[in-house]
Amino acid sequence: MSAPTRRPASPERLLGLARARRSRYLHDLEQLVAIDSGSYSATGVNAVADWVERRLELIGFDVERVRFPPAPDGRRTGDALVGRRRGALPESAGGRRIVLAGHMDTVFEDGTAAARPFRLDGSTAHGPGVSDDKGGLLAGLTALEMLGELGADAYDELVFLATPDEEIGSPASRALIESTAKGMHYGLGLECARENGDLVIARKGVADFRLTVTGRAAHAGIEPERGANAALAAAHLTVALQALNGHWDDVTVNVGVVRAGTRANIVCPQAELRIEVRAATTADIRRVTRAIQEAADHPGVPGVTVEVEQLDLCPPMEDTPASRRMFGLARRAARSAGIDIGAAATGGVGDANLIAGAGVPVLDGLGPVGGADHTPQEWLDTTTVPQRIALLAALITSLGDIGTH
């Protein structure tokens, strides 16, 4: 292996290399968008994985391909890819391990790519997944390709993680994401930038709960007093839980599903609530969890009991001092590429949340600028492609060697 490049490539050279690759980027993006790769279209996702795997191998990555078992309902996702490339600067000498994460699946059904193919409207690209996340996935690959060409290997390890099921909450790949993130020094999310160009420095976490309300059945006309109405208790709980909104900054509580009863002439013996909580910090998720349990302990109807189950937890990607330091380096790199960026927080979740949950500082939104995700109007601003790729490459070189900052 060659000696480490202790000085990052100049911003001007990185931007020049990125501009020279713009035409190839658009050609490759058209190929990727032409592949239907909905989360449960395993064949399509694997076609994208084949393409990404070949590209990673060409730039010197050792690639592990991970296949997942079917979901309980029998549906199957595609494979995940974990590409690794060792650098020339070990951790003991200041080198750092960086994981780049993007996803290969989209929200669209098979047939969408043919019905709504890739097209350029001036400098704006359209097509299913063009922004979320094929544009960002390709930007990450292109940045790594540039660094390989330059021999910029002043890092301990680069890891490229491509997942097949982000759009459905990463149920199959979650354990792989978390295990891959362990031991990393930094995480870079390849989702596309916000519409105004901002990077994402924070994402809310999400906790899902099920409340099972158990009452007592009785004849509603003859002896209603012998019953304990679970539907009434569920109504009280819905009001109480919705009232938690506004108690804490950046916290939302939504009772999204209420089910109760089977017949109008029976005092309702059982009800169910499904609740989603979104919060910017783990501490706030804990506070809301305690508040939900407190409400469940006092359902407001004698004879009714309530069981609280936390069904899922996607940890928040918190705005931390470490991620702010990363953002400072990103902003410096952006200015060198001729752009200015801000830091945004969002309520949407992604694989970056899981990396952050493993204790790794993360920046997301490092792909080109795009928008209207999950809609037929999805777009990508191709004029931002060279600058964003150069920004990403410069950020990797800055983070890879602790001695450079």
Descriptive report:
InterPro entries: Bact_exopeptidase_dim_dom, Pept_M20_glutamate_carboxypep, Peptidase_M20, Peptidase_M20_dimer, Peptidase_M20A. This is M20 family metallopeptidase. Keywords: Hydrolase, Metal-binding. It comes from Streptomyces lavendulocolor. By secondary structure, the protein is an alpha/beta fold. The chain folds into two domains: 282 residues, 3-Layer(aba) Sandwich (Aminopeptidase); 110 residues, Alpha-Beta Plaits. 34% of the residues lie in helices and 24% in strands. The chain has eleven helices and 17 strands. Strand 4 and strand 5 form a beta hairpin. 51% of the residues are buried.
What is the element layout, followed by pairings?
Elements: H1 11-20, H2 22-33, H3 42-58, E1 62-66, E2 80-86, E3 97-103, H4 112-115, E4 119-121, E5 124-126, H5 134-150, E6 157-163, H6 174-181, E7 186-189, E8 192-193, E9 199-203, E10 205-214, H7 230-242, E11 251-260, E12 270-279, H8 282-297, E13 305-314, H9 321-336, E14 343-346, H10 351-357, E15 362-363, E16 367-371, E17 379-381, H11 385-400
Parallel strand pairs: 3-6, 3-7, 7-15, 8-16, 9-14
Antiparallel strand pairs: 1-2, 2-6, 4-5, 5-17, 10-12, 10-13, 11-12, 16-17
Helix pairs in contact: 1-11, 2-5, 5-11, 6-10, 9-11
